[in-house]
Design goal:
This protein has 385 residues and is an alpha/beta fold. The protein has 3 domains: 57 residues, Vcp-like ATPase, Chain A, domain 2, CATH 3.10.330.20; 183 residues, Vaccinia Virus protein VP39 (Rossmann fold, 3-Layer(aba) Sandwich), CATH 3.40.50; 40 residues, no CATH class. Helices cover 27% and strands 22% of the residues. It has 9 helices and 15 strands. Strands 9-8-7-10-11-15-12 form a 7-stranded mixed beta sheet, with helices on both faces. A 4-stranded antiparallel beta sheet has the order 2-1-6-5, covered by helices on one side. Strand 1 and strand 2 form a beta hairpin. Helix 1 runs antiparallel to helix 3 and helix 2 packs parallel to helix 3. The longest helix has 31 residues. The chain starts with 14 loop residues before the first strand and ends in an 11-residue tail after the last strand. Bound molecules: S-adenosylmethionine. S-adenosylmethionine binds next to helix 3, strand 8 and helix 5. It catalyses: adenosine(58) in tRNA + S-adenosyl-L-methionine = N(1)-methyladenosine(58) in tRNA + S-adenosyl-L-homocysteine + H(+).
Length: 385
């Protein structure tokens, strides 16, 4: 089962996440004789056998390439067919660590939806754990079941049940569920919470997380949790931010002096350049006036045109009339040392320090996460009471 067990070399029957392009990934079961067709060419499954996960594979005609990636819940989340809104990795990873879910945990999830989070749970629980996932929409439930089957999860640790948990609860005939973690991604989790007492662990603390997009839903969820005796109730939201790491040039006082001198030199250059241009326009000989063009009866050149022409000609300065080279503009843009050049980030001739900056596009939250814990009350033996 490749979604939670890693291997190096691809064999027939394995699952491969085919990376076709930045926006396009496709999960394939390696089947001899089959071919993937992409706009970059076609790729034979037979040639995948024996390659390593992570390898690049060239198209059958010798052009175009794809990457053969190991399937993971994270890659599945960004490539799965959406049937519903889904939980993304920033939230799922936080929920899993916050509910202390690990190998051997017993998790209750509703609804399954597009089974994005289901894959992350299943990978984390390993073959000693158990995941009970519920979905009341029949078509979605069947689609999810087929996927979980294909990805080998049903065989290892996952049970999917077609059920309205708000109405009919979570119990499954013949199963002792004993959940130690609960995740509810439902429109009305407060109606499902009262059913949980029949299926959560009586031996150990159970953590719950309810995933709701609106604060009004959070209000009702908190009220239901309190009513049912859950404690440590806390609502959080996860804000994903990408950080950019880069180098910043280290400058000292002598650099500042150089920079000021450079600014002064450029100012002088400007004044000198303008003086030369003015001098030329004063000494230029004006062209004689031209009257009408005989063909189209419009002036070939007006006085105004001539004025413009003489100005532009006067700007074409002969080499002998150009400002001295030390006054010529040697470059534009950021110029930290007044050398008239751009300095490439990390150029080894200068000193640099490592800095980080937040990218401007901040990926914000998708839902509020309400956490709580249920601590089982141990019954005292009659005689001790
Ligand atoms: C937002 S989706 C869940 C997405 C899922 N967490 C994922 O990551 O792919 C919510 C799902 O809950 C299901 N649902 C809503 N009410 C339900 C109920 N009472 N019992 C079971 N499933 C329910 C919906 O059909 C829907 O598929």
């Amino acid at each position: 089962m490749l979604f939670y067990r890693y291997k190096d070399v691809i064999e027939e029957g394995d699952i491969v996440m085919v990376y076709i392009g930045r926006q396009q990934m496709k999960l394939v079961n390696v089947t001899l004789g089959e071919v993937i067709n992409t706009r970059y060419g076609h790729f034979e499954h037979d040639k995948m056998v024996g390659k390593k996960y992570g390898d690049q594979m060239v198209g059958a005609k010798g052009y175009g390439f794809i990457y053969l990636l190991h399937p993971t819940p994270e890659l599945w989340t960004v490539s799965l067919p959406h049937r519903t809104q889904i939980v993304y990795t920033p939230d799922s990873s936080y929920v899993i660590q916050r509910l202390n879910i690990g190998p051997g945990s017993r998790v209750i999830e509703a609804g399954t939806g597009s089974a994005s989070f289901t894959h992350s749970f299943a990978r984390t629980l390993g073959d000693q754990g158990k995941l009970f996932t519920y979905e009341f929409h029949e078509v979605r439930c069947n689609e999810a079941r087929k996927e979980l089957e294909r990805h080998g999860l049903l065989a290892v640790n996952t049970t999917i049940t077609h059920r309205d948990v708000c109405q009919d609860g979570f119990e499954i005939q013949g199963e002792d569920i004993r959940g130690d973690a609960v995740f509810l991604d439902l429109p009305a989790p407060w109606t499902a919470i009262p059913h949980l007492k029949h299926v959560i662990s009586k031996e150990m603390a159970t953590g719950i997380c309810c995933f709701s997009p609106c604060i009004e839903q959070v209000d009702k969820t908190v009220a239901a949790l309190q009513e049912e005796g859950w404690t440590d109730i806390e609502m959080v939201e996860v804000m994903g931010r990408r950080w950019e790491a880069r180098k910043d040039m280290v400058r000292d006082i002598s650099d500042v002096v150089k920079r000021l001198k450079d600014i002064q030199a450029r100012k002088t250059q400007g004044i000198e350049g303008r003086r030369v241009v003015k001098l030329q326009s004063e000494t230029a000989t004006p062209e004689p006036n031209v009257s009408y063009d005989s063909g189209n009866k419009r002036p070939a050149s007006t006085e105004e045109d001539q004025q413009k022409q003489s100005e532009s000609e006067s700007k074409e300065v002969s080499p002998s009339q150009q400002p001295p080279s030390k006054f010529q503009n040697l470059g534009k843009g950021f110029n930290p040392f007044g050398k008239g050049i751009r300095v490439r980030e990390g150029d080894e001739s200068y000193a640099w320090t490592q800095v980080t900056k937040i990218e401007s596009d901040v990926k914000s939250h998708t839902s509020y996460l309400t956490f709580a814990r249920n601590i089982p009350t141990k019954k005292q033996p009659e005689e001790n009471v």
